[in-house]
């Protein structure tokens, strides 16, 4: 049976309705991608920061054993580079203890540069999720160390033991700020570095 020209054209081309449906679907997919991609990228930044922190802490253990002297691990209380945001632990640095001053304070050699966390990443300010939260905050008179920012710290001894509380593993939990605000409770997207206080072995969760 022969088909008319009209029938042939109907089967060989898209109608206006079909084109509009396709455009609508593409628009929906683009909108969904725009909503999910930033969150996925932020989660990847959080994971990368946690992996780097865990690796640097394990390296600090090796440094203490190699030098056979204490190593100080500092976490600096800093503002974000880009406002808005709040003061929080946003950077860290490892320093080898070279001696002690007349007042019993450690003198250190800051061989490693400060590692700044991504601008929306910080240590959760809660003693439940951050063992260092609530510990003594030290003044910093060295502008080359964390830009002079105050810090909290602990020490790794030459045998791998630490000054962290020995009753239970220590934990350092990284979270992300949302709209420049620190989460009031632990969010669903977080990364925790768990530290054995007796060996300073670090595991990432």
Rg measurement, Å: 26 Å
Per CATH, the superfamily is minor pseudopilin epsh domain
Count of individual domains: 1
Stretches where pLDDT falls below 50 for ≥5 residues? none
Summary tags:
205 residues; alpha+beta; minor pseudopilin epsh fold; 5-stranded antiparallel sheet; 2 helices; 9 strands; 29% helix; Verru/Chthon_D
Task: Characterise the protein shown here.
With 205 residues, the protein is an alpha+beta fold. The chain has a single domain (47-204), classed as minor pseudopilin epsh fold (3-Layer(bab) Sandwich), CATH 3.55.40.10. The protein has helices at 5-12, 16-67, and strands at residues 71-78, 88-100, 106-109, 115-116, 121-123, 151-156, 170-176, 191-195, 202-204. β2 (88-100) and β3 (106-109) form a beta hairpin. It is elongated and about 85 Å long. The model has no long low-confidence stretch (mean pLDDT 86). InterPro entries: N_methyl_site (IPR012902), Pilin-like (IPR045584), Verru/Chthon_D (IPR019836). Keywords: Membrane, Transmembrane, Transmembrane helix. The chain crosses the membrane at residues 12-35. Pfam families: N_methyl (PF07963).
Helix-strand blueprint:
Elements: H1 5-12, H2 16-67, E1 71-78, E2 88-100, E3 106-109, E4 115-116, E5 121-123, E6 151-156, E7 170-176, E8 191-195, E9 202-204
Antiparallel strand pairs: 1-2, 1-6, 2-3, 2-4, 5-7, 7-8, 8-9
Quick take:
The protein is an alpha+beta fold. It has helices at 5-12, 16-67, and strands at residues 71-78, 88-100, 106-109, 115-116, 121-123, 151-156, 170-176, 191-195, 202-204.
């Amino acid at each position: 049976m022969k088909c008319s020209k009209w029938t042939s054209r109907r089967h060989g081309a898209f109608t206006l309705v079909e084109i509009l449906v396709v455009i609508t679907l593409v628009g929906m997919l683009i909108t969904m991608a725009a909503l999910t991609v930033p969150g996925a990228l932020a989660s990847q930044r959080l994971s990368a920061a946690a992996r780097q922190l865990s690796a640097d802490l394990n390296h600090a253990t090796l440094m203490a054993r190699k030098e056979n002297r204490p190593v100080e691990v500092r976490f600096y209380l800093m503002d974000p580079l880009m406002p808005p945001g709040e003061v929080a632990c946003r950077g860290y640095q490892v320093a080898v203890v070279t001696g002690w001053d007349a007042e019993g304070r450690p003198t250190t050699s800051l061989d490693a540069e400060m590692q700044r966390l991504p601008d929306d990443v910080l240590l959760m300010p809660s003693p439940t999720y951050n063992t260092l939260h609530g510990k003594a905050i030290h003044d910093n008179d060295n502008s080359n160390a964390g830009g002079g920012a105050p810090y909290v710290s602990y020490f790794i001894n030459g045998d791998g033991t630490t000054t962290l509380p020995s009753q239970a593993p220590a934990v350092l939990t990284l979270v992300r700020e949302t709209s420049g605000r620190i989460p009031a409770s632990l969010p669903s997207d977080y990364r925790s570095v768990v530290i054995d206080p007796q060996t300073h072995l670090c595991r990432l969760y």
